[in-house]
Design the sequence.
């Protein structure tokens, strides 16, 4: 399985051509963003600010037992971590211990407060990771594929996304305005949709480098007039102020004339080495490219850190070279060490981004393992921080149509066949199934085949009902799990765009209502 092949624009967005094909080069790379209606009132950021203020007021008007202010805020995201994915990962965790599994818990499932997040975006019933990142980091819902801008900007309209009047700021910027440290950690790339929500303003999440603007701009966008995401991270606020940035994606920062540390050609066409530019802006800054370098970094006040551990997205944990690639838990530990040097506190965004990739591949063996890695990272954060000072929020951006089906008995292998039921033809079926995917496992008569042996293969693609080029997202609500100061506010049902406003309320940052008012 090639991780880099999962989530480029062509594979994610689907085809506007109904003809069945396995040739991903024939997909319209921008189909996801086209021909979708946006309610006019939702194009104004104030609509979402007002809605968030209503949801905050509803919560703070209840009896308040917790008066603690959050000095630090850590937001964890399991990308594509549906509630079914959480449940399956919990069962797998228990079964790996030799138990039945259903009774086990992930670290964040032990948090005292839980809620549900509504994930739709301004023009999308089922969202992507860009419009959702704008919601849970900037507090405003926007159009699908867009980052850090209002829904007033049409798809691939560079002039609109460059106009500051259309920009919405993130909780990372709010934290910086309060003199807090900030940082992003991800198992994808630093310019991927989720972490980019903390700093970028762009009409198209796939404009990660200047070359990508030409590739995905449909001939109407020029890199000279449209700032790519990598450039925004290194040269513009709030990205250029981040104290720590850990993940993959080195190629987006280097020119094509250079090889990166992993033997891969850089991707930039403008000849700019953004890592050299970052180093010149931060002479005391440290760059790390492998696990040992990262673990040996000594956190010092005022010394910033970039860690880039792959040319593209990082490897699945189960497939990574453990001697070279840090785990999410290790990156989390280092990020907290660096950010903790600031006596004013910090905001960190930490993403387990490959949960989504495992689900897109219809390979839950990999996706569920990524949830277990996220769970370890969350536990590390809990262990390293003071619960009276640090608010920790764990959530997801969107769901995937993964089901746990039938009536399997307790302890049934969550990655195996349901041993207690069959289809109408007497053939056992997998406990885990997807709605849309690449394999239906039908014989020449359209009947399901026996998967008893095939399901044991290490990268077995699980069955799906609808034949698709790749697995898709779903529109389910996703979970929110919170602990620490003001964590009780994250209970109940809320708009995804309310999440950063609640974190800001707890930390007394930003321009909205706060605990300190």
Sequence:
């Amino acid at each position: 399985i090639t991780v880099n092949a999962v989530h480029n624009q062509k594979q994610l967005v689907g085809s506007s051509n109904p003809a069945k094909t396995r040739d991903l080069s024939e997909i319209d790379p921008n189909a996801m963003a086209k021909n979708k209606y946006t309610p006019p009132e939702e194009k104004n950021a104030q609509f979402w600010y007002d809605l968030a203020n209503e949801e905050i007021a509803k919560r703070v008007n209840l009896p308040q037992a917790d008066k603690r202010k959050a000095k630090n805020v850590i937001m964890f995201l399991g990308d594509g971590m549906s509630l079914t994915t959480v449940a399956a990962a919990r069962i797998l965790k228990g079964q790996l211990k030799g138990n039945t599994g259903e009774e086990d818990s992930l670290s964040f499932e032990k948090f005292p407060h839980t809620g549900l997040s509504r994930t739709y975006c301004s023009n999308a019933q089922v969202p992507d990771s860009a419009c959702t990142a704008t919601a849970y980091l900037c507090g405003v819902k926007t159009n699908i594929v867009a980052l850090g801008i209002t829904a007033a900007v049409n798809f691939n309209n560079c002039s609109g996304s460059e106009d500051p009047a259309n920009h919405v700021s993130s909780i990372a910027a709010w934290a910086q305005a309060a003199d807090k440290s900030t940082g992003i950690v991800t198992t994808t790339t630093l310019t991927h949709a989720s972490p980019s929500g903390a700093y970028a303003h762009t009409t198209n999440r796939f404009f990660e480098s200047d070359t990508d603007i030409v590739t995905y701009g449909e001939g109407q966008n020029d890199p000279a007039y449209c700032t790519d995401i990598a450039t925004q991270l290194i040269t513009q606020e709030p990205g250029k102020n981040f104290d720590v940035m850990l993940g993959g994606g080195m190629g987006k920062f280097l020119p094509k004339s250079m090889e990166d540390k992993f033997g891969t050609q850089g991707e930039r066409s403008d000849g700019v080495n953004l890592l050299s530019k970052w180093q010149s802006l931060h002479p005391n800054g440290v760059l790390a490219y492998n696990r040992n370098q990262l673990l040996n970094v000594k956190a010092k006040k005022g010394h910033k850190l970039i860690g880039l551990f792959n040319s593209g997205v990082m490897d699945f944990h189960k497939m990574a070279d453990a001697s070279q690639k840090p785990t999410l838990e290790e990156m989390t530990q280092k990020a907290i060490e660096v950010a903790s040097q600031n006596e004013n506190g910090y905001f960190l965004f930490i993403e387990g981004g490959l949960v989504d990739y495992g689900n897109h591949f219809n390979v839950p063996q990999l996706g569920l393992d990524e949830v277990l890695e996220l769970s370890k990272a969350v536990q590390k954060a809990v262990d390293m921080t003071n619960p009276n000072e640090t608010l920790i929020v764990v959530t997801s951006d969107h769901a995937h149509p993964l089901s746990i089906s039938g009536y399997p008995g307790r302890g049934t292998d969550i990655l195996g066949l349901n041993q207690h039921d069959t289809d109408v033809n007497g053939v056992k079926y997998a406990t885990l199934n997807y709605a849309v995917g690449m394999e239906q496992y039908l014989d020449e008569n359209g009947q399901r085949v026996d998967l008893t042996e095939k399901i044991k293969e290490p990268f077995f693609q699980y069955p799906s009902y609808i034949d698709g080029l790749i697995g898709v997202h779903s529109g389910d609500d996703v979970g929110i799990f919170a602990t620490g100061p003001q964590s009780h506010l994250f209970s109940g049902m809320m708009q995804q765009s309310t999440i950063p406003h609640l974190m800001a309320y707890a930390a007394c940052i930003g321009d909205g209502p706060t605990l300190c008012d």
